Amino acid sequence: MTAASEICADCGAALRGPYCSQCGQKRLEDHDRRLGALLMDFLAEVFEWDSRWWRSLLALVFRPGRLSRAWLEGRRTRYVKPVTLFLLANFLYFFAPGISDFDLPLRDQMNHSHFGMTSEWVDRRIAARHAADPHYTLAGYETAYDARADSIGKIIIVLHVPFLALALLLLFWRTPYYYAEHFAVALHLFAFLLLFVQIFGWTLNVLGWIIDSSVRFDLGLRLILLTTIVGYCAVALRRAYLCRWLYAVPAAGVAFAVLLATDLFVYRTVQFVVTFALT
Protein backbone atom coordinates (compact mmCIF):
# COMPACT_ATOMS: atom_id res chain seq x y z
CA MET A 1 0.00 0.00 0.00
CA THR A 2 1.17 3.52 -0.80
CA ALA A 3 1.05 6.02 2.05
CA ALA A 4 -1.47 8.84 1.74
CA SER A 5 1.35 11.39 1.56
CA GLU A 6 2.77 9.49 -1.42
CA ILE A 7 -0.44 9.83 -3.44
CA CYS A 8 -1.43 12.97 -5.34
CA ALA A 9 -4.50 14.50 -3.70
CA ASP A 10 -5.64 15.84 -7.05
CA CYS A 11 -5.45 12.91 -9.47
CA GLY A 12 -4.53 9.94 -7.25
CA ALA A 13 -1.25 9.13 -9.03
CA ALA A 14 1.76 7.92 -7.05
CA LEU A 15 4.15 10.70 -6.07
CA ARG A 16 7.89 10.32 -6.68
CA GLY A 17 8.98 13.86 -5.92
CA PRO A 18 7.64 17.24 -4.76
CA TYR A 19 5.34 17.50 -7.79
CA CYS A 20 2.99 15.03 -9.43
CA SER A 21 4.25 13.79 -12.79
CA GLN A 22 0.68 13.44 -14.06
CA CYS A 23 -1.06 16.71 -13.20
CA GLY A 24 1.67 18.93 -11.73
CA GLN A 25 0.02 19.21 -8.31
CA LYS A 26 2.53 19.96 -5.51
CA ARG A 27 2.91 17.40 -2.73
CA LEU A 28 0.97 18.75 0.25
CA GLU A 29 3.04 19.23 3.39
CA ASP A 30 2.00 20.50 6.82
CA HIS A 31 3.25 24.03 6.11
CA ASP A 32 1.11 24.17 2.95
CA ARG A 33 -1.99 24.18 5.17
CA ARG A 34 -1.03 27.37 7.00
CA LEU A 35 -2.15 30.93 6.27
CA GLY A 36 1.34 32.05 5.24
CA ALA A 37 1.46 29.45 2.48
CA LEU A 38 -1.95 30.59 1.20
CA LEU A 39 -0.74 34.19 1.09
CA MET A 40 2.47 33.24 -0.71
CA ASP A 41 0.53 31.25 -3.30
CA PHE A 42 -1.72 34.24 -3.90
CA LEU A 43 1.21 36.62 -4.36
CA ALA A 44 2.94 34.18 -6.68
CA GLU A 45 -0.15 33.93 -8.88
CA VAL A 46 -0.60 37.71 -8.99
CA PHE A 47 2.99 38.51 -9.89
CA GLU A 48 3.23 35.66 -12.41
CA TRP A 49 0.04 36.92 -14.07
CA ASP A 50 1.28 40.48 -14.10
CA SER A 51 4.67 39.56 -15.51
CA ARG A 52 3.17 37.55 -18.37
CA TRP A 53 0.74 40.33 -19.18
CA TRP A 54 3.34 43.07 -19.14
CA ARG A 55 5.81 40.93 -21.06
CA SER A 56 3.16 40.19 -23.69
CA LEU A 57 1.88 43.76 -24.00
CA LEU A 58 5.37 45.23 -24.30
CA ALA A 59 6.29 42.65 -26.93
CA LEU A 60 3.05 43.26 -28.83
CA VAL A 61 3.56 47.01 -29.00
CA PHE A 62 7.34 47.41 -29.21
CA ARG A 63 8.54 44.11 -30.72
CA PRO A 64 6.21 43.45 -33.67
CA GLY A 65 6.03 39.77 -34.57
CA ARG A 66 7.85 38.45 -31.50
CA LEU A 67 4.68 36.99 -29.95
CA SER A 68 3.66 35.46 -33.26
CA ARG A 69 7.09 33.94 -33.85
CA ALA A 70 7.12 32.44 -30.37
CA TRP A 71 3.66 30.97 -30.99
CA LEU A 72 4.62 29.51 -34.35
CA GLU A 73 7.73 27.94 -32.82
CA GLY A 74 5.66 26.35 -30.06
CA ARG A 75 6.95 28.57 -27.22
CA ARG A 76 3.53 29.30 -25.77
CA THR A 77 3.89 29.49 -21.98
CA ARG A 78 5.99 32.65 -21.64
CA TYR A 79 3.36 34.94 -23.13
CA VAL A 80 -0.39 35.47 -22.85
CA LYS A 81 -2.34 33.54 -25.48
CA PRO A 82 -3.29 35.42 -28.69
CA VAL A 83 -7.03 35.19 -28.09
CA THR A 84 -6.57 36.57 -24.56
CA LEU A 85 -4.64 39.58 -25.87
CA PHE A 86 -7.31 40.19 -28.48
CA LEU A 87 -10.03 40.01 -25.82
CA LEU A 88 -8.14 42.56 -23.73
CA ALA A 89 -7.88 44.95 -26.68
CA ASN A 90 -11.54 44.39 -27.48
CA PHE A 91 -12.45 44.93 -23.83
CA LEU A 92 -10.66 48.30 -23.79
CA TYR A 93 -12.33 49.28 -27.07
CA PHE A 94 -15.71 48.19 -25.74
CA PHE A 95 -15.57 50.37 -22.64
CA ALA A 96 -13.29 53.22 -23.67
CA PRO A 97 -13.02 53.57 -27.45
CA GLY A 98 -10.66 56.19 -28.79
CA ILE A 99 -11.17 56.66 -32.51
CA SER A 100 -12.02 54.07 -35.08
CA ASP A 101 -14.02 53.35 -38.19
CA PHE A 102 -15.82 50.48 -36.46
CA ASP A 103 -18.60 52.53 -34.85
CA LEU A 104 -20.97 53.32 -37.71
CA PRO A 105 -24.17 55.29 -37.05
CA LEU A 106 -27.13 54.98 -39.38
CA ARG A 107 -26.29 58.02 -41.49
CA ASP A 108 -22.79 56.72 -42.15
CA GLN A 109 -24.21 53.41 -43.29
CA MET A 110 -26.75 55.12 -45.57
CA ASN A 111 -24.09 57.37 -47.14
CA HIS A 112 -21.86 54.51 -48.29
CA SER A 113 -22.39 53.83 -51.98
CA HIS A 114 -21.97 50.06 -51.58
CA PHE A 115 -24.96 50.01 -49.25
CA GLY A 116 -27.65 50.41 -51.86
CA MET A 117 -29.99 48.31 -49.76
CA THR A 118 -29.63 50.44 -46.64
CA SER A 119 -31.75 53.42 -47.66
CA GLU A 120 -34.41 51.19 -49.18
CA TRP A 121 -34.73 49.03 -46.07
CA VAL A 122 -34.83 52.03 -43.76
CA ASP A 123 -37.40 53.87 -45.90
CA ARG A 124 -39.68 50.85 -45.88
CA ARG A 125 -39.40 50.49 -42.11
CA ILE A 126 -40.08 54.17 -41.48
CA ALA A 127 -43.10 54.10 -43.82
CA ALA A 128 -44.54 51.01 -42.10
CA ARG A 129 -44.11 52.45 -38.62
CA HIS A 130 -45.31 55.88 -39.69
CA ALA A 131 -48.54 54.31 -40.90
CA ALA A 132 -49.12 52.95 -37.42
CA ASP A 133 -47.83 56.08 -35.66
CA PRO A 134 -47.98 59.39 -37.61
CA HIS A 135 -45.39 60.90 -35.24
CA TYR A 136 -42.75 58.27 -36.05
CA THR A 137 -39.88 59.75 -38.09
CA LEU A 138 -36.44 58.87 -39.36
CA ALA A 139 -34.90 60.83 -36.50
CA GLY A 140 -36.64 58.60 -33.96
CA TYR A 141 -35.46 55.43 -35.67
CA GLU A 142 -31.95 56.84 -36.06
CA THR A 143 -31.69 57.40 -32.31
CA ALA A 144 -32.72 53.82 -31.55
CA TYR A 145 -30.46 52.41 -34.27
CA ASP A 146 -27.36 54.35 -33.19
CA ALA A 147 -27.82 53.32 -29.56
CA ARG A 148 -27.76 49.64 -30.58
CA ALA A 149 -25.21 49.82 -33.43
CA ASP A 150 -22.35 50.78 -31.13
CA SER A 151 -22.61 47.66 -28.95
CA ILE A 152 -23.29 45.38 -31.93
CA GLY A 153 -20.19 46.66 -33.71
CA LYS A 154 -17.99 45.99 -30.70
CA ILE A 155 -19.30 42.44 -30.38
CA ILE A 156 -18.82 41.44 -34.03
CA ILE A 157 -15.51 43.22 -34.56
CA VAL A 158 -13.81 39.81 -34.45
CA LEU A 159 -15.18 39.21 -37.98
CA HIS A 160 -12.08 40.93 -39.33
CA VAL A 161 -9.75 38.26 -37.96
CA PRO A 162 -10.79 35.16 -40.00
CA PHE A 163 -10.38 37.06 -43.27
CA LEU A 164 -7.01 38.43 -42.23
CA ALA A 165 -5.93 34.90 -41.26
CA LEU A 166 -7.04 33.62 -44.66
CA ALA A 167 -4.98 36.33 -46.35
CA LEU A 168 -1.93 35.28 -44.30
CA LEU A 169 -2.52 31.65 -45.24
CA LEU A 170 -2.50 32.58 -48.94
CA LEU A 171 0.41 35.01 -48.65
CA PHE A 172 2.57 32.49 -46.79
CA TRP A 173 1.25 29.30 -48.35
CA ARG A 174 4.75 27.85 -48.63
CA THR A 175 5.20 27.87 -44.86
CA PRO A 176 4.29 24.70 -42.93
CA TYR A 177 1.72 26.41 -40.72
CA TYR A 178 -1.95 25.55 -40.38
CA TYR A 179 -4.79 28.06 -40.71
CA ALA A 180 -5.17 28.12 -36.91
CA GLU A 181 -1.57 29.27 -36.58
CA HIS A 182 -2.11 32.05 -39.12
CA PHE A 183 -5.23 32.89 -37.12
CA ALA A 184 -3.05 33.41 -34.04
CA VAL A 185 -0.83 35.81 -36.00
CA ALA A 186 -3.94 37.64 -37.22
CA LEU A 187 -5.15 37.98 -33.62
CA HIS A 188 -1.85 39.61 -32.67
CA LEU A 189 -1.99 42.02 -35.60
CA PHE A 190 -5.59 43.01 -34.98
CA ALA A 191 -5.04 43.35 -31.23
CA PHE A 192 -2.29 45.87 -31.97
CA LEU A 193 -4.53 47.72 -34.44
CA LEU A 194 -7.27 48.05 -31.82
CA LEU A 195 -4.84 49.23 -29.15
CA PHE A 196 -3.12 51.66 -31.50
CA VAL A 197 -6.24 53.42 -32.78
CA GLN A 198 -7.46 53.78 -29.21
CA ILE A 199 -4.17 55.19 -27.89
CA PHE A 200 -3.95 57.46 -30.94
CA GLY A 201 -7.47 58.72 -30.31
CA TRP A 202 -6.91 59.25 -26.60
CA THR A 203 -3.74 61.20 -27.37
CA LEU A 204 -5.56 63.48 -29.80
CA ASN A 205 -8.30 64.08 -27.26
CA VAL A 206 -5.77 64.95 -24.58
CA LEU A 207 -4.14 67.39 -26.99
CA GLY A 208 -7.47 69.11 -27.45
CA TRP A 209 -8.66 67.63 -30.71
CA ILE A 210 -12.42 67.27 -31.13
CA ILE A 211 -13.00 63.76 -32.37
CA ASP A 212 -16.31 62.06 -32.94
CA SER A 213 -17.79 59.65 -35.46
CA SER A 214 -18.96 62.46 -37.77
CA VAL A 215 -15.49 63.99 -38.18
CA ARG A 216 -13.31 62.94 -41.10
CA PHE A 217 -9.60 62.96 -40.44
CA ASP A 218 -7.50 65.20 -42.59
CA LEU A 219 -4.89 63.74 -44.89
CA GLY A 220 -2.05 64.09 -42.39
CA LEU A 221 -3.76 62.05 -39.68
CA ARG A 222 -4.81 59.40 -42.15
CA LEU A 223 -1.25 59.09 -43.42
CA ILE A 224 0.06 58.69 -39.86
CA LEU A 225 -2.46 55.95 -39.15
CA LEU A 226 -1.86 54.17 -42.45
CA THR A 227 1.94 54.36 -42.26
CA THR A 228 2.08 53.15 -38.66
CA ILE A 229 -0.30 50.23 -39.17
CA VAL A 230 1.21 49.02 -42.45
CA GLY A 231 4.75 49.57 -41.13
CA TYR A 232 3.97 47.61 -37.98
CA CYS A 233 2.47 44.79 -40.06
CA ALA A 234 5.55 44.66 -42.29
CA VAL A 235 7.92 44.35 -39.32
CA ALA A 236 5.63 41.81 -37.63
CA LEU A 237 5.29 39.64 -40.73
CA ARG A 238 9.02 39.71 -41.41
CA ARG A 239 9.80 38.59 -37.87
CA ALA A 240 6.94 36.09 -37.57
CA TYR A 241 7.47 34.34 -40.91
CA LEU A 242 11.22 34.98 -41.27
CA CYS A 243 10.76 36.50 -44.72
CA ARG A 244 12.65 39.24 -46.50
CA TRP A 245 11.71 42.91 -46.45
CA LEU A 246 11.11 42.70 -50.18
CA TYR A 247 8.22 40.35 -49.46
CA ALA A 248 7.15 41.57 -46.01
CA VAL A 249 6.32 45.12 -47.10
CA PRO A 250 3.96 44.27 -50.00
CA ALA A 251 2.49 41.42 -47.91
CA ALA A 252 1.66 43.97 -45.21
CA GLY A 253 0.00 46.15 -47.83
CA VAL A 254 -2.09 43.22 -49.03
CA ALA A 255 -3.02 42.28 -45.46
CA PHE A 256 -4.15 45.85 -44.77
CA ALA A 257 -6.13 45.91 -48.01
CA VAL A 258 -7.89 42.70 -46.99
CA LEU A 259 -8.70 44.22 -43.59
CA LEU A 260 -10.10 47.32 -45.28
CA ALA A 261 -12.19 45.29 -47.74
CA THR A 262 -13.49 43.14 -44.88
CA ASP A 263 -14.44 46.26 -42.96
CA LEU A 264 -16.22 47.81 -45.92
CA PHE A 265 -18.06 44.82 -47.33
CA VAL A 266 -18.39 42.27 -44.52
CA TYR A 267 -18.24 43.96 -41.15
CA ARG A 268 -20.41 46.94 -42.12
CA THR A 269 -22.97 44.73 -43.84
CA VAL A 270 -23.28 42.38 -40.88
CA GLN A 271 -23.40 45.29 -38.44
CA PHE A 272 -26.22 46.93 -40.38
CA VAL A 273 -28.25 43.75 -40.88
CA VAL A 274 -27.97 42.68 -37.23
CA THR A 275 -28.70 46.16 -35.86
CA PHE A 276 -31.58 46.64 -38.28
CA ALA A 277 -33.08 43.30 -37.22
CA LEU A 278 -32.88 44.26 -33.53
CA THR A 279 -34.37 47.74 -33.94
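Above is the first protein from milestone M3; the second protein from the same milestone is given next.
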Amino acid sequence: MRTVVVGTRPPEIDALIAQRRARGLDLFDELWNGDYHMNPAPHPRHGEIDHQLVAVLYTLAKELSLVPLSVFNLGTADNYRVPDLGYCRSRPDSVFVPTAATVIEIVSPGDETFDKLPHYAEFGVDEVIVVDPETHTVRVFRGLDEVPDSNVLGITAQWLAAQLDWPD
Protein backbone atom coordinates (compact mmCIF):
# COMPACT_ATOMS: atom_id res chain seq x y z
CA MET A 1 0.00 0.00 0.00
CA ARG A 2 1.27 3.45 -0.87
CA THR A 3 0.13 6.86 0.34
CA VAL A 4 1.30 9.86 -1.63
CA VAL A 5 0.72 13.43 -0.51
CA VAL A 6 1.17 15.78 -3.46
CA GLY A 7 2.24 19.34 -2.79
CA THR A 8 3.25 20.86 0.52
CA ARG A 9 3.33 18.34 3.33
CA PRO A 10 0.54 19.09 5.85
CA PRO A 11 1.54 19.78 9.47
CA GLU A 12 -0.11 16.53 10.57
CA ILE A 13 2.40 14.54 8.52
CA ASP A 14 5.30 16.51 10.00
CA ALA A 15 3.87 15.82 13.46
CA LEU A 16 3.62 12.09 12.67
CA ILE A 17 7.24 12.02 11.46
CA ALA A 18 8.37 13.87 14.60
CA GLN A 19 6.40 11.45 16.77
CA ARG A 20 8.00 8.44 15.01
CA ARG A 21 11.44 9.99 15.52
CA ALA A 22 10.77 10.69 19.22
CA ARG A 23 9.65 7.09 19.78
CA GLY A 24 12.50 5.56 17.79
CA LEU A 25 10.13 4.12 15.20
CA ASP A 26 11.89 5.76 12.25
CA LEU A 27 14.95 3.49 12.11
CA PHE A 28 14.04 2.15 8.66
CA ASP A 29 12.56 5.38 7.26
CA GLU A 30 14.33 6.76 4.19
CA LEU A 31 14.52 9.97 2.19
CA TRP A 32 14.40 9.43 -1.57
CA ASN A 33 15.45 12.71 -3.20
CA GLY A 34 13.34 14.61 -0.68
CA ASP A 35 10.41 12.15 -0.63
CA TYR A 36 9.92 10.60 2.80
CA HIS A 37 9.43 6.82 2.81
CA MET A 38 7.95 5.66 6.11
CA ASN A 39 8.91 2.01 6.53
CA PRO A 40 7.69 -0.34 9.26
CA ALA A 41 9.95 -2.78 11.04
CA PRO A 42 10.57 -5.81 8.82
CA HIS A 43 9.00 -9.26 8.94
CA PRO A 44 10.41 -11.52 11.73
CA ARG A 45 12.01 -13.82 9.10
CA HIS A 46 14.11 -10.83 8.20
CA GLY A 47 15.71 -10.69 11.66
CA GLU A 48 16.41 -14.39 11.68
CA ILE A 49 18.22 -14.19 8.33
CA ASP A 50 20.04 -11.02 9.45
CA HIS A 51 21.57 -12.84 12.42
CA GLN A 52 22.64 -15.76 10.24
CA LEU A 53 24.26 -13.45 7.68
CA VAL A 54 26.27 -11.72 10.39
CA ALA A 55 27.46 -15.10 11.69
CA VAL A 56 28.38 -16.38 8.22
CA LEU A 57 30.01 -13.23 6.84
CA TYR A 58 31.65 -11.50 9.82
CA THR A 59 34.94 -13.43 9.94
CA LEU A 60 35.20 -13.53 6.15
CA ALA A 61 34.73 -9.74 5.92
CA LYS A 62 37.24 -9.07 8.71
CA GLU A 63 39.85 -11.23 6.93
CA LEU A 64 39.31 -8.98 3.90
CA SER A 65 39.77 -5.86 6.09
CA LEU A 66 36.18 -4.79 5.51
CA VAL A 67 34.34 -2.82 8.19
CA PRO A 68 30.93 -4.38 8.99
CA LEU A 69 27.90 -2.13 9.45
CA SER A 70 24.41 -2.89 10.63
CA VAL A 71 21.43 -0.71 9.67
CA PHE A 72 22.89 2.60 8.40
CA ASN A 73 22.11 5.60 6.17
CA LEU A 74 23.77 5.33 2.75
CA GLY A 75 23.76 8.58 0.82
CA THR A 76 23.27 12.19 1.87
CA ALA A 77 21.02 13.97 4.37
CA ASP A 78 18.37 14.61 1.69
CA ASN A 79 18.76 11.33 -0.23
CA TYR A 80 19.54 8.14 1.63
CA ARG A 81 18.53 4.48 1.85
CA VAL A 82 18.87 2.17 4.84
CA PRO A 83 20.40 -1.20 3.93
CA ASP A 84 20.20 -4.04 6.43
CA LEU A 85 23.92 -4.76 6.46
CA GLY A 86 26.96 -3.45 4.69
CA TYR A 87 30.72 -3.63 4.44
CA CYS A 88 32.99 -0.62 3.88
CA ARG A 89 36.66 -0.47 2.98
CA SER A 90 37.28 2.06 5.77
CA ARG A 91 35.43 3.04 8.93
CA PRO A 92 32.85 5.75 8.17
CA ASP A 93 32.74 8.73 10.50
CA SER A 94 29.43 10.35 9.59
CA VAL A 95 25.72 9.70 10.01
CA PHE A 96 25.31 9.53 6.24
CA VAL A 97 27.74 7.02 4.77
CA PRO A 98 28.77 8.10 1.25
CA THR A 99 29.31 4.60 -0.19
CA ALA A 100 30.06 0.97 0.68
CA ALA A 101 31.85 -1.94 -0.90
CA THR A 102 28.80 -4.16 -0.42
CA VAL A 103 25.32 -3.66 0.95
CA ILE A 104 22.93 -6.42 1.86
CA GLU A 105 19.18 -6.07 1.55
CA ILE A 106 16.91 -8.67 3.11
CA VAL A 107 13.53 -8.69 1.38
CA SER A 108 10.39 -8.26 3.48
CA PRO A 109 6.89 -8.48 1.99
CA GLY A 110 5.98 -5.27 0.16
CA ASP A 111 9.35 -3.55 0.66
CA GLU A 112 11.24 -1.48 -1.93
CA THR A 113 14.46 -3.51 -2.11
CA PHE A 114 14.79 -3.61 -5.89
CA ASP A 115 13.80 0.05 -6.26
CA LYS A 116 16.94 0.91 -4.24
CA LEU A 117 19.40 -0.56 -6.76
CA PRO A 118 19.77 2.65 -8.84
CA HIS A 119 20.49 4.64 -5.67
CA TYR A 120 23.23 2.25 -4.61
CA ALA A 121 24.76 2.39 -8.11
CA GLU A 122 24.60 6.21 -8.08
CA PHE A 123 26.49 6.29 -4.76
CA GLY A 124 29.24 3.97 -5.98
CA VAL A 125 28.34 0.80 -4.07
CA ASP A 126 30.34 -1.98 -5.71
CA GLU A 127 27.65 -4.61 -5.26
CA VAL A 128 24.33 -5.33 -3.62
CA ILE A 129 23.43 -8.72 -2.19
CA VAL A 130 19.68 -9.34 -2.04
CA VAL A 131 18.52 -12.12 0.25
CA ASP A 132 14.89 -13.25 0.02
CA PRO A 133 13.70 -15.43 2.92
CA GLU A 134 10.39 -16.17 1.17
CA THR A 135 11.96 -17.62 -2.00
CA HIS A 136 15.13 -18.89 -0.28
CA THR A 137 17.30 -17.07 -2.81
CA VAL A 138 20.42 -14.91 -2.79
CA ARG A 139 21.12 -12.59 -5.72
CA VAL A 140 24.13 -10.34 -6.35
CA PHE A 141 23.97 -7.12 -8.36
CA ARG A 142 26.72 -4.92 -9.75
CA GLY A 143 24.94 -1.75 -10.67
CA LEU A 144 21.67 -2.98 -12.16
CA ASP A 145 23.15 -6.21 -13.55
CA GLU A 146 22.69 -9.51 -11.76
CA VAL A 147 25.91 -11.53 -11.47
CA PRO A 148 26.60 -14.97 -9.95
CA ASP A 149 29.17 -13.97 -7.36
CA SER A 150 30.45 -11.29 -5.00
CA ASN A 151 33.83 -9.96 -6.07
CA VAL A 152 34.11 -8.04 -2.80
CA LEU A 153 33.50 -11.01 -0.50
CA GLY A 154 34.84 -13.70 -2.85
CA ILE A 155 31.73 -15.90 -2.59
CA THR A 156 28.97 -17.01 -4.92
CA ALA A 157 25.28 -16.31 -4.37
CA GLN A 158 24.71 -20.07 -4.45
CA TRP A 159 27.29 -20.65 -1.68
CA LEU A 160 25.75 -18.01 0.57
CA ALA A 161 22.24 -19.38 0.03
CA ALA A 162 23.47 -22.85 1.06
CA GLN A 163 24.86 -21.45 4.36
CA LEU A 164 21.46 -20.20 5.52
CA ASP A 165 18.90 -22.13 7.52
CA TRP A 166 15.88 -20.69 5.74
CA PRO A 167 12.85 -20.05 7.97
CA ASP A 168 9.49 -21.40 6.78
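Note on the second protein: The chain has a mean pLDDT of 91.
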